[in-house]
Amino acid sequence: MNRRFIWCMLLKINVDDINRRVILHDLVRNADKTLVKQVNCDVDRCNSPNNAFKIKLKHLIISVFSYRKEHFSYIQGIHEIGRVFLTLFHEHKQNILDIKKSIFKLTQFSDNNEIIALSKALKMKLSTGKGRMDICFKAFDKFLIAYSTPYIYKHDCLTEINIESTLSKIASDVLHLLNHDSPTLHNFFINLKEKNESESKICMFILPWIITYFSHNVSRTSDKLIYYIFDHVISNNPLLIIFLVKEILIQCQWELFDFLEKYFGSETHGSSEHEMYPFVHLYFQNLDISSLKWDVIIDNSQKSLLNSRISKLNSYDLWNIDNKCTQNFKVNLIFRIRASQNTMIYYTLIFTIFSIAISFIVNEFGFSKVIRNEYS
């Protein structure tokens, strides 16, 4: 199905959201000058297809944070997520056939009139450049609320967000999960940490991963991969990011140790040398995320997420978002697809049995006729 439709549905965009008028130009024009300066600086440094794309990306980010200025504060890296949404939603060429197929499938697998109405409304919006930008704004806004709150939310008008506290909670959970799945790697990171030092100090390298959901680290030419990652992020609990980080560390474990042995020899394993951390940071900073086995990472992460008591994680309270509707839609759609498939299997089985019975009767009748002719 068309990815833009699925993302909108999983992000709980409804018909009212689509019809709600938001004048992006006014939001950009009235935005805080500090916000504009910071966004312009970040976007100008990023690798974009052309200047026109950069201008649209700036307007997208500035408009969202101007719209949410009372609660959200922009931080460096969020523009990478904006780039992902803009690349997907603001395509100049629209595959009408894919959209028609999407609506047809939804009509088949769902009797929910609201979902069908949403699909038709999205089709109308996505048919124009202005409409695509409007939907991109709303989808990006919904994503930030659901998945980026720990990094951009201001607890009150006077207090800025505390990234170090957020990172410390996430890092402690990653180490906790590693202790279960890879004690060797867990002990390695613990030995890097000085006494009474926060876990965030030894896990600073994961900060770009969790803030940008890996969009900063994936090559600009690997849009399919980043879409694939976002597909699973959007359709899962926000805590999935912690399990993804854990699986990446496990997959890179032995390559990391080999890298460190070049500088520290056999003392790599179990070493308590705190000078080793800069090399650990260097390794992960230069890690080619695109070269990893992402199907394994995502599969293991989802299994681990389902089998973990997430309410016990330190990061559990960071995402104060109710994802039941997202999960319900996903489960409901899958259930209906499976139910439809089961119905088809049932009728196919009945038809097969009926055909065999008819064939048996015909063959038996024909065989009897041959016997009678033979002995008559």
TrEMBL record:
SUPFAM superfamilies: Ypt/Rab-GAP domain of gyp1p. One of its GO terms (biological process) is endoplasmic reticulum to Golgi vesicle-mediated transport. One of its GO terms (molecular function) is GTPase activator activity. PROSITE patterns: TBC_RABGAP. Residues 1-237 form the Rab-GAP TBC domain. Gene3D superfamilies: 1.10.8.1310, Ypt/Rab-GAP domain of gyp1p, domain 3. It holds the Pfam family RabGAP-TBC. This is TBC domain-containing protein. It comes from Cryptosporidium canis.
